[in-house]
Write a structure and sequence with these properties.
By secondary structure, this protein is an all-alpha fold. It has one domain (12-97). The chain has 3 helices and no strands. It has helices at residues 2-62, 67-76, 85-97. The radius of gyration is 32 Å and the shape is rod-shaped.
Length: 98
């Protein structure tokens, strides 16, 4: 019986080791997936921030222009010239950044 008990204990140790290794692999996969998701979130955030900077730079080009000057710029691009100054600036910015 002693040999049988030793074999059983050895088999249990092997099973436990395999289970622990499988858990470590699963944990590593979860961590890798989380890192990938975080990298994607960071990339998306960086892209949004870059797009915001580009829009701000485009908007700065039109600061201080009169409504007539903005309308002229829109006419050059065959875009609608009606609306408030803010709407005209936004239309120009959209045209610049798209």
């Amino acid at each position: 019986m002693v040999a049988g008990d030793a074999a059983k204990q050895q088999a249990e140790r092997v099973d436990n080791t395999q289970r622990e290794q499988a858990e470590r692999v699963q944990q590593a996969q979860r961590e890798r997936e989380e890192l990938t998701r975080q990298a994607e979130r960071d990339k998306t955030k960086a892209e949004r921030e870059q797009a915001h900077r580009v829009r701000q730079q485009a908007r700065e080009r039109y600061q201080g222009l009169t409504k007539a000057e903005l309308s002229d710029k829109l006419a050059e691009r065959h875009l609608p010239k009606t609306g408030t100054v803010d709407e005209l600036v936004e239309r120009l910015v959209s045209a610049d950044t798209n």
